[in-house]
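Tokens for chain A. Residues wanted.
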């Protein structure tokens, strides 16, 4: 029986597959509480990670990514509104506007009014963002500050220790770019490239990434330290080599599968053809191949060989004259110097010098 990870691991009843984001994260339909959405995601993420070993490694990783994409969508104010409208939700006009991060931290009782005042004064003096001021003064940790800023901007927050980026997406952005801008490309969700960053990415970087992927780009906030750690992890030389080896292995397996399927088709065709009686074909006589015209290089080489042979014929004639004929003959054998080299030159011309 095939594994249904939604039912067997998450307890989602039979129904549409894949389930919608609210069913997947075990939330009430159109839940708006960011804390509730993140809380459920965190619990489910930890639960699914129990299966992330052995035979279910691929299934668990795929489900973890699906959970992350659902959470990032529902904690992104703009994308959540679009998603909810696609699910049939109707919105009333909201005139209150988003809360600022200091108000969010006050509501969550992470800071007091006096601490907010102190953080704002420190931010003004040091030229810092309010988030960085809260962290520098050790009023809240970097994750809490990043979550509050994300809520103010209406963007999702991602815990990079719980999210595994897509290998293909990582490889399409150079290490120099991610280090320069403190970003980490994550994956593509619903035709949008999600990029983790410490700040809202600027228009210039957004245009560069859009050109690389030919898709719109959306920021996902993360703590600055977490981004630097993730860059060091995923863009280390060993990690890049591991991704390349994994990609090559997948390509080899796909190629082998294609060849196997092709071999089966060829084998079936051969078996079918073998059942048909074939008349033996008469052996074909090959026509003698005509030698094409010699190249300039071949002509030069054969000319040099011919000269050597003709010169050697003069040497042979001299040796015959000096050691064989002259000691025994009573006439002058001058004609030998015309006959032997002449015949040799004629043979050379016929075999080597003729084009």
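Reply:
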């Amino acid at each position: 029986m095939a594994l249904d990870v939604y039912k067997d691991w998450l307890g989602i009843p039979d129904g549409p597959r894949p389930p919608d984001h609210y069913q997947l994260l075990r939330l009430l339909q159109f839940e708006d509480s960011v804390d509730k959405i993140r809380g459920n995601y965190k619990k489910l993420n930890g639960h699914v990670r129990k299966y992330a070993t052995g035979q279910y490694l691929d299934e668990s990783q795929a489900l973890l990514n699906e959970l992350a994409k659902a959470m990032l969508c529902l904690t992104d104010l703009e994308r959540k509104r679009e998603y909810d409208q696609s699910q049939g939700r109707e919105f009333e006009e909201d005139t209150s506007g988003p809360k600022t991060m200091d108000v969010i931290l006050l509501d969550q009782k992470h800071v007091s009014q006096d601490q907010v005042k102190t953080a704002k004064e420190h931010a003004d003096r040091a030229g810092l963002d309010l988030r960085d001021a809260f962290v520098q003064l050790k009023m809240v940790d970097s994750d809490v500050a990043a979550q509050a800023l994300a809520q103010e901007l209406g963007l999702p927050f991602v815990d990079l220790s719980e999210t595994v980026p897509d290998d293909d997406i990582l490889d399409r952005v150079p290490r120099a770019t991610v280090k320069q801008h403190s970003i980490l490309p994550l994956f593509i969700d619903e035709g949008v490239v999600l990029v983790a960053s410490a700040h809202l990415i600027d228009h210039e970087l957004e245009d560069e990434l859009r050109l690389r992927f030919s898709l719109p780009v959306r920021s996902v906030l993360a703590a600055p330290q977490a981004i630097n750690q993730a860059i060091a992890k995923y863009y280390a030389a060993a990690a890049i080599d591991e991704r390349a080896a994994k990609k090559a292995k997948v390509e080899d397996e796909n190629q082998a599968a294609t060849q196997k399927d092709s071999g089966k088709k060829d084998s079936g065709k051969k078996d079918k053809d073998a059942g048909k009686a074939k008349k033996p074909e008469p052996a074909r006589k090959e026509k003698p191949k005509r030698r094409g015209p010699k190249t300039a290089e071949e002509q030069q080489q054969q000319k040099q060989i011919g000269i050597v042979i003709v010169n050697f014929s003069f040497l042979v004639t001299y040796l015959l004259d000096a050691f064989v004929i002259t000691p025994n003959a009573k006439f002058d054998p001058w004609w030998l110097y015309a006959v032997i080299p002449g015949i040799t030159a004629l043979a050379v011309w016929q075999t080597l010098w003729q084009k």
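The mean pLDDT is 85. The CA atoms of residues 196 and 220 lie 5 Å apart.
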